[in-house]
TrEMBL record, chain A:
Molecular function, one GO term: zinc ion binding
Residues of the RING-type domain: 79-298, 83-131
Domain of life of the organism encoding this protein: Eukaryota
CDD domains: Rcat_RBR_TRIAD1
Pfam families xref list: Ariadne, IBR, IBR_1, UBA_ARI1
Name the UniProt record assigns to this protein: RBR-type E3 ubiquitin transferase
EC number(s) on file: 2.3.2.31
The reaction(s) this protein catalyses: [E2 ubiquitin-conjugating enzyme]-S-ubiquitinyl-L-cysteine + [acceptor protein]-L-lysine = [E2 ubiquitin-conjugating enzyme]-L-cysteine + [acceptor protein]-N(6)-ubiquitinyl-L-lysine
Keyword Thylakoid: no
Organism encoding this protein: Cyclotella cryptica
Top-level class of the enzyme under EC nomenclature: transferase
Keywords on record: Metal-binding, Repeat, Transferase, Ubl conjugation pathway, Zinc, Zinc-finger
InterPro entries: Ariadne, ARIH1-like_UBL, E3_UB_ligase_RBR, IBR_dom, Rcat_RBR_TRIAD1, TRIAD_supradom, Znf_RING, Znf_RING/FYVE/PHD
TrEMBL record, chain B:
Domain annotation UBC core: ranges: 4-150
Active site (record annotation): C88 (glycyl thioester intermediate)
Entry superkingdom: Eukaryota
MF-aspect GO terms: ATP binding; ubiquitin conjugating enzyme activity
Descriptive protein name: E2 ubiquitin-conjugating enzyme
Length: 446, 153
């Protein structure tokens, strides 16, 4: 930030405090600022509220010196100054007054109150204008430093925040309480459309550099925003259908899903079913041919011939709900897998203690498996948002094939890693991890 | 208790008495200098002529760095005044400056009466009539003026 301001100071011959504002108002696009500035410097200065500050530029120091010596000379004549904020009848000594470059001056006490109050408004304080009504000259760190030195650090924090937020190449780490700043290395303007993923060194939160959300491949930022907006709008309807419990398809007992896998067994009637489609689990088995048929939305299931508006709306809602249910299902499973990361560590310790010969690296596969599971759930979640917007039928069927593979192997990995320790087979888990890893890569590549 | 807000309000009061602006009056409530009652008289030669409109102004310790809450007690019919008496006026919101005092606030509100800002309607009916049917608008305003005398008693 400092380097950028330096350059503007040199090129435009304006004070540093004004340079920072000029850059901020032009979203730190230097070239754009220079162009606008050389076209019409006055207009740019006026618009950004730094006109007076810039016009006392080079000769400014001299002028200030002159007036202050004049002030000193006239003080003996006790010319008291009037502060328009407190309207104190006694007036003030000239050296008790602090003035803005625009010439409006106020007493030190009122200035302090003004700045204190401005900082209470939060991030907007960097846009605070001169206390004089109708004057649009901006208050900068120069005034804060003179009137309220103790509040300067807070003001500068807000300046930095505004820089990070308006400058297209930086982004705050979205990790809770984390204050790291990510800077894009690419020199070519904004972040690449491919969606750069950053990982914070401090709190190891991963995020998309472009939109700041959790990494969301294969869907792009724009479609993700659309999807999230849609989910918010439809949430009333969706919630109705997606209460956190579902009735057992056989005995109608309410069932809460508290494990990550979609293979459910009703605790009262022992019926085994798939949590996603509520169908009999035996129809999902690999040995019956069609392993996992519930990731495809079949528009033929509803009556396609009915062209009335109501029917169209219903079909569109069904289509959305189909994808949303699965998106939501994987989202919850991802949260669950994240939670179980902690338990996994406990299991690793237990496994190690069972056998004195085992070393940490021997049980590390458990953690790897769990981390991979979180990753798979995340990718699967976004594949459903992606597929919702995928118009091309050919592409969609190819995509859904890979999605189905990934889903199938993710489910079996989930099941494997939830087994009691004594049934756990290390080789099987490790193999499954590498299979789903490859599937992830394929889905993201396709 | 003397704080900068209270000191400033006392000065505002003195200025209001020594140099009263035309058509507005105001004074703090007996027990609380942070709470003021004011009256704005409808400007002559306008439909508002003769009206006496009561307001309350509520100040905080942040005054004059923060604007007071201002609300009409009298029922109003005006494009920028809500049904509950709240006023939509830029200098009471984002254009507030600490150099404003009570007489500046009251005179601004007074001039808002005959010079509404149709861009930010707070009362859609008043706004519509003001733009489309000025006769009917003026008639409704005069109703409000007469109403304000009844409220008085």
């Amino acid at each position: 930030m400092t380097a950028q301001i330096r350059e503007v100071v040199d090129v435009l011959k304006v004070p540093p405090s004004a340079a920072a504002i000029l850059m901020r108002e032009h979203k730190w696009a230097k070239e754009r600022l220079f162009q606008a500035f050389f076209d019409n410097p006055e207009k740019v200065q006026e618009k950004c509220g730094v006109k007076a500050r810039c016009s006392c530029g080079s000769g400014g120091d001299e002028k200030v010196a002159k007036t202050s010596s004049k002030n000193r000379a006239t003080r003996s004549a006790s010319k008291r100054k009037h502060c328009e904020i407190c309207m104190d009848d006694d007036g003030f000594d000239p050296d008790e007054m602090i003035s803005m470059p625009c010439g409006h001056e106020f007493c030190e006490t009122c200035w302090y109150g003004f700045i204190h109050n401005a900082l209470d408004k939060g991030p907007l304080c960097v846009r605070e204008t001169c206390p004089q009504a109708g004057c649009n000259e901006l208050v900068t760190e120069e005034e804060v430093a003179r009137a309220a030195p103790d509040l300067l650090p807070k003001f500068e924090t807000y300046q930095l925040r505004s820089f990070v937020e308006t400058y297209g190449m930086t982004r705050w780490c979205p990790g809770p309480g984390c204050e790291q700043v990510a800077v894009a290395r690419a020199s070519g303007g904004a972040f690449a459309d491919a969606g750069g993923v950053a990982r914070c060194e401090k709190c190891s939160t991963s995020f998309c550099l472009k939109c700041g959300e959790e990494p969301h491949a294969p869907i792009n930022c724009r479609e993700l925003a659309l999807w999230q907006e849609k989910c918010r709008n439809e949430s009333e309807t969706a919630n109705w259908i997606l209460a956190n419990t579902k009735p057992c398809p056989k005995c109608s007992s309410r069932i809460e899903k508290n494990q990550g896998c979609n293979h459910m067994t009703c605790s009262s009637c022992k019926f085994e079913f798939c949590w996603i489609c509520m169908g009999d689990w035996t129809q999902h088995g690999a040995d019956t041919g069609g392993y996992y048929k519930c990731n495809k939305y079949d528009p033929n299931a509803s009556n396609d011939n009915d062209q009335s508006d109501a029917a169209k709306a219903k079909r569109e809602l069904d289509r959305y709900l189909h994808y949303y249910k699965r998106f939501h299902g994987h989202s919850q499973a991802q949260e669950f897998a994240k939670k179980s990361l902690k338990e996994t560590e406990a299991r690793m310790v237990a496994l190690q203690e069972q056998n004195v010969d085992t070393v940490w690296t021997d049980v590390e596969f458990l953690k790897t498996a769990n981390e991979q599971l979180v990753e798979c759930r995340k990718v699967l979640k976004y594949t459903y948002a992606f597929a919702f917007y995928l118009q091309d039928a050919d592409k969609r069927s190819r995509f859904e094939f890979h999605q189905e593979m990934l889903e199938k192997f993710t489910e079996s990995l989930s099941e494997l890693s939830e087994k009691p320790l004594h049934e756990m087979n290390r080789t099987e888990v490790v193999n499954q991890v590498s299979i789903v890893f490859i599937d992830c890569v394929i889905v993201l590549g396709g | 208790m003397s704080t900068s807000a209270r000191r400033r309000l006392l000065r505002d009061f003195r200025r209001l008495q020594n140099d009263p602006p035309s058509g507005v009056t105001g004074a703090p409530m007996d027990t609380n200098i942070m709470l003021w009652q004011a009256v704005i008289f409808g400007p002559d030669d306008t439909p508002w002529e003769g009206g006496t409109f009561k307001l309350v102004l509520e100040f905080t310790e942040d005054y004059p760095n923060k604007a007071p809450q201002v609300r009409f007690l009298t029922k109003m019919f005006h494009p920028n005044i809500y049904n509950d008496g709240q006023i939509c006026l830029d200098i009471l919101q984002n254009q507030w400056s600490p150099i404003y005092d009570i007489s500046a606030i009251l005179t601004s509100i007074q001039s808002l009466l005959c010079d509404p800002n149709p861009a930010s309607p707070a009362n859609s009916e008043a706004s519509r009539l003001y733009n489309e049917n000025r006769r009917e608008y003026n008639r409704r305003v005069r109703e409000i003026v007469e109403q304000s005398w009844i409220d008085e008693s």
